[in-house]
Design brief:
globular, 37% strand, 5 strands, alpha+beta, single chain, 5-stranded antiparallel β-sheet
Length: 78
């Protein structure tokens, strides 16, 4: 599970921090609202294999496609 927290939103970029397992360590993802390109701009320290980043990217792409950028979101999987 991870939590996304909206950090910045403007015409050129949207930044979400993602918190694996709701811990203090976090990573950051940026999406360009004009073309949907997504990149990890900071890796979470406790995401050694990048699994949390991949789930966060998938959710941010889903948000981009919907055009809705909530202040926070939760992603869970099993």
């Amino acid at each position: 599970m991870l939590t996304l927290q909206l950090i910045e939103k403007n015409d050129s970029k949207i930044i979400y921090d993602f918190f694996p397992e709701d811990r203090d360590q976090h990573g950051s993802i940026e999406v360009d609202p004009n073309n949907g390109s997504v990149s990890v701009i900071k890796n979470a320290e406790n995401d050694e294999l990048g699994n949390y980043a991949r789930h966060a990217i998938s959710k941010v792409i889903e948000l981009y496609e919907s055009g809705d950028y909530p202040g926070s979101a939760t992603v869970a999987w099993y």
